[in-house]
Input
Amino acid sequence: MKRIPFLDSHTGGEPTRLISENFPDLGAGSVAEKLFRLEQNFDTFRSQVLNEPRGADVLVGALLVQPADSTCQLGVIYFNNVGYLGMCGHGTIGLMASLSYQGKITPGAYRIETSVGVVEATLHPAQKTPENAASYPNRVSVRNIPSYRLLKHLAVQVDGQTLHGDVAWGGNWFFLCHDHGLEVSPQNLEPLTDLAWRIRAAYTQMGITAPDGHAIDHVELFAPTPRADSRSFVLCPGKAYDRSPCGTGTSAKLACLAADKIIREGQTWRQESVVGSIFEGRVQIQGEAIIPTITGEAWVMAEGQLLVDERDPFANGIK
Ligand code: PYC
Output
C-alpha cells in the first residue's frame, strides 16, 4: 500500500491539496525541469492525487519541491485535473497558510520558485484578538511574476453572437470577456460554464495561442458587483470553475486595467469571485508589464494520507 500524506486548504472556496513527501524522485534542477519530468514520467501520480475517486475536478495540487534558485526558500509545482499550471495564486496562498498551520513557517516574506518564475509570498501576522489568539496566520500577499496584456478587444463569434475579450498573461493564460451578457452568480454556473467553454473553442479555432503556442486555457467572464470593483467567473482548463477570484486571473485583469490606465500604483483593486470571496490586488508598473500583488486568506480543512492500493482498478484515478 502506497501512502501519500496530504493537507487540504481552501482559498476563497478554491481547494489546494499540498503534498510534501512520498512523491516520485524528480531528480535535480529547476522547478520547470522537475515539472517536465513529472509530466513525462510520472503523470499517474498527478491523477492518483487529484482525480476521482480520491480527488475532484476542482482540486489544485501543490507539490513542494526543492528550489534550484538559491535565493528561494521553497519550490512548488502546481497541477490540476487535466495537467500542470505555471503559477497559481490561490494555491500559493493555500501553500503558505498550510505551512503556517504545520508550524513550518512564521510571518515574513518567502521567495518561491515556480515553473514560470520566482514569486514572493508574505505571510502576515495573525490579528491577535481573544477569539483567534491560538489560530495560525493565514493571510498572505503574493507578489507575482510580471504580467501583461497580449491582445486587446479580440472579436470572437460564438453561436452567431460577436463577443470581445483581451488575452493576458498572469502566470497562466487568460481570455478576459466583459460583453458576454450573462449574470455572474452561483445560480448561473451551468450557462457560464457552457459559454466560457464555447468562447474557448471559438478563439482556439481562430488559432489564437500564446506566443510560444501554449493554449489560452483559462476564460474569465466579468460583471459589475456592489461588493467589489468587479466580479468574475473563471473557467479552468479542465472545465472546473475557480471558486476563488483566481490569483493569476486577477493578475491578468490588473495587467489589462494598467494597460488601459484604469488602475495606478498605490490603488487597491478588489476582485470578487462567483461565490463571493474577494482578493485584493495592487500593481507596480514595469514598462508594458506590471508586477501584481494579490492578497487573500486560506483555511486548512483536512489532513491525512491518501492510500494507493495496487489491486484497486481505479488506483490511478478516473481519467
Ligand atoms: O488562483 O491562480 C489561481 C488559479 C489558477 C487556477 C485556479 N486558481
